[in-house]
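writing this on my phone so excuse typos. first protein, seq and then structure
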Amino acid sequence: MLSLGIVGLPNVGKSTLFNALTRSKQANVQNYPFCTIEPNVGVVEVPDERLAKLAAVSKSKKIIPTAIEFVDIAGLVKGAAEGEGLGNKFLSHIREVDAIVQVVRAFEDPNITHVHNKVDPKEDADVINLELVLADWEAVAKRLESAKGKAKGVVPKDLALELALLERLSVHLESGKPARLLEYSDEEQPILKELHLLTMKPMMYVVNVNDQGLVINDYSDSLKELLINHYSLITVSARLEAELAELSAEDAKAYMVEVGLTESGLDKIIKAGYALLHLITYFTSGEPETRAWTVTRGTRGPDAAGVIHTDFVKGFIKADVVNWQDFVTFGGWSGIKGTGKLRLEGKEYVVQDGDVCYFHVSV
């Protein structure tokens, strides 16, 4: 399951956003720093209008969407890497997620204290990013010291590779740059994975704006600077999302039209998360159930089948594959035969977003 960690300074709207996304009141939203100590975790169904259309054609008894996990991590402050504000504990929670959702504040509200007494999204982001970099630098420095201690006499090839990587990373991180901006060889990837670096994780910015048409003009220059390193950036009003979460699905749609929104904050964040992690969705559909499955872009047939059951990887024989729109248009599996739209694919087939698959396996 995809896991997104929500981070940011205290009082930028992280917990309000978390509660809205998960339609819960798990997270404390009091107006003071560190009102969240232990991370709150919520699992949300991924909205996908294709599921209902597929299920209607297949007369499915159940619809099972894929899911995403949101983790609300306590607000970080300057000095977090040295333990300021319980920083070390909070940073360890970030290591467990697949991608980082960094919330920055772009709204004025005299009733909500800003820890720096100044609203500046770029400055907020700089504080968080530097703390993540410093935490990684400390981890790399410890590993480098250990590796140098092992480098006695003739240095084995694998240790020499590790030393070179660690030294390069140390210089890069010491300059204040995240590890994701460096290029790495295939040989270096296993070492990199062992380090569990925070700044290797994909990251998006969620700009928490006001409710008035999501106006962000006052901070446009600051926000442009956030995109220098090619991060994903979306705008959301946490307060508005919280109001939508209190309404029925029908009333929420009507309210969105009224305020000029074409999609919810949840939809925006999920789309951005899937894009960040290069994820796609394929489907299985029949009378028992219609179900969505998430795989990484570029996944071949056997590994896609393995998401359903690990035995299907070795047992994969072939797959019947059709685009979901054709599946709906021609009336499902029975109607698609003879149209030329149904394809028989083998082990080298790369699954595409929107494929409806029937796997033939031997187990």
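second protein below, same order as before
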Amino acid sequence: MQLGMIGLGRMGNGMTERLRKNGHDVQTFDPAVESRTAASLEELKSQLDAPRAFWMMIPAGKITEDTFEQLLTLADEGDTIVDGGNSNFRDSQRRYAAANKKGIHFVDAGVSGGIWGLEVGFCLMVGGDDAPVRRLEPVFTALAPADGYAHVGPSGAGHFVKMVHNGIEYGLMQSYAEGFEIMDHSEFGLDLEQISGIWRYGSVVRSWLLELLHSAFEQHGSQLADVAPYVEDSGEGRWTIAEAIAENVPAPVITASLYARFASRDEVNFAARVAAALRNEFGGHAVKKA
């Protein structure tokens, strides 16, 4: 099947290669990559037969919005635009409505797999109308491992499910982080690389994330000394919490994990200074000098 891939970063490049290995004809556009097949979106369109399928694998936000608007002016009736980035599901619903007015299909595809997707496959959570999703299923099934693809619902559902997926990921990562910090501070001089290694086999907390943590310990040492203690967020944890609030659903673990990421970025940690100063003022507790 033919596909126009827009964006050849870590994910887009791996997806393109996996599709080509499975016999699909993938034309590509990325202004920052020389190996692209097209130098513009217009040229990309000319390399595809109607009805065309354009897959955006680019960062959420302005670049996705600008590319979508360009595609709306270029695409013909019956073509399909797929957004495989981490867009907000509300934006996907809006884009679906805008595309629908022009007779263009819009599909939102939540994609998980990271840099390992080329080798083991990408988990795909797809939202959109039945007809365009069915037409693109050969692409979805080629990208995904066995049983790793589902059409989860109408427009927006794919990115909604991916949003919650990433919110859960925040909580899992923070739980591992806290547990290993407790062990790192213990009196036993524990070998964290060894422990993460044995937990991969038979333990109830074994997971792919734990395997990746063990790999990180192997590469960087048990103290992860060359890894800066600064944790960024992509925005999906915030969106998950916002939806939890809107739906009156308590999400304390995901919320706390997001706040922990915020705390990691504060080198000064003024709030801790305030608390230490107050303890000194009301109780005479000693204050450590900076």
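DSSP finds 13 helices and seven strands in the chain. thats all i got for now
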